[in-house]
């Protein structure tokens, strides 16, 4: 796997690069701003970009804007965004262009090597990985949406789906059978009005409905 890192903090940038190297993941470019990210992606066409939301010069949303522009230029480019704090609109905006191959994690997750590397590999493979703190805040924000019709257990299952977990992984997390999870997932699809589609995976559509709720 070939990765581009965009992070203005030298310590974190080099730390992530070393962590990935220990896992056999090559960093082809490590840059400190949005323009550098765009140039690196154009030059290297990486398998994944790891991007800080806030970078120079204003330290607001330069990283996010650059990540969105990269996905516009190269549709399907996997992007894992790192943020110091939970910023809901950034998560929703990133996913608005399609939830395939996107992730949003708090920077503190980098300290959990296994969790971070799992997220890197999942997003690079076209999956999703949304920080559970973001999911928690999004769940309590909405008052009127189809998600409100879900039972507490179904909302819990959908939250784990948003983190990128498979049915088997959800079953292990909740200590229930695979069949129970499959039933909950079926109920979620039905309540959200997600009929089978050849063009868009229902799990992705459910996650989008969840994050936009």
Automatic annotation (TrEMBL):
Official protein name in the record: DNA-binding response regulator
CDD domains for the chain: LuxR_C_like (cd06170), REC_NarL-like (cd17535)
InterPro entries associated with the record: CheY-like_superfamily, NreC/VraR/RcsB-like_REC, Sig_transdc_resp-reg_C-effctor, Sig_transdc_resp-reg_receiver, Tscrpt_reg_LuxR_C, WalR-like
Keywords: DNA-binding, Phosphoprotein, Transcription, Transcription regulation
Keyword Transcription assigned: yes
Residue stretches making up the Response regulatory domain: 2-122
Entry-annotated residues carrying 4-aspartylphosphate: 52
The organism's place on the tree of life at top rank: Bacteria
Domain HTH luxR-type: 143-213
Keyword Aminoacyl-tRNA synthetase listed: no
GO molecular function: DNA binding
Gene3D superfamilies for the chain: 3.40.50.2300
Matches recorded under SUPFAM superfamilies: C-terminal effector domain of the bipartite response regulators (SSF46894), CheY-like (SSF52172)
């Amino acid at each position: 796997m070939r990765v581009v890192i965009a992070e203005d903090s030298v310590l974190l940038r080099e730390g992530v690069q070393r962590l990935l190297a220990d896992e056999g993941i090559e960093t082809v470019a490590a840059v400190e701003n949005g323009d550098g990210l765009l140039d690196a992606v154009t030059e290297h066409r990486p398998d994944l970009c790891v991007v800080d939301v806030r970078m120079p010069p204003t330290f607001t949303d330069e990283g996010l804007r650059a990540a969105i522009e990269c996905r516009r230029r190269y549709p399907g480019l996997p992007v894992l965004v790192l943020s110091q704090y939970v910023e809901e609109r950034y998560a929703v905006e990133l996913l608005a262009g399609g939830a395939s191959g996107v992730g949003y994690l708090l920077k503190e997750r980098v300290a959990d090597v296994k969790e971070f590397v799992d997220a890197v590999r999942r997003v690079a493979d076209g999956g999703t990985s949304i920080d559970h703190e973001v999911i928690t805040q999004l769940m309590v924000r909405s008052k009127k949406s189809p998600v409100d019709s879900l039972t507490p257990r179904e909302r819990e299952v959908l939250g784990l789906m948003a983190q990128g977990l498979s049915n088997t992984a959800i079953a292990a997390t909740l200590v229930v059978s695979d069949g129970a999870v499959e039933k909950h997932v079926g109920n979620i699809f039905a309540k959200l009005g997600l009929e089978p589609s050849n063009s868009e995976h229902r799990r992705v559509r459910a996650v989008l409905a969840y994050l936009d709720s």
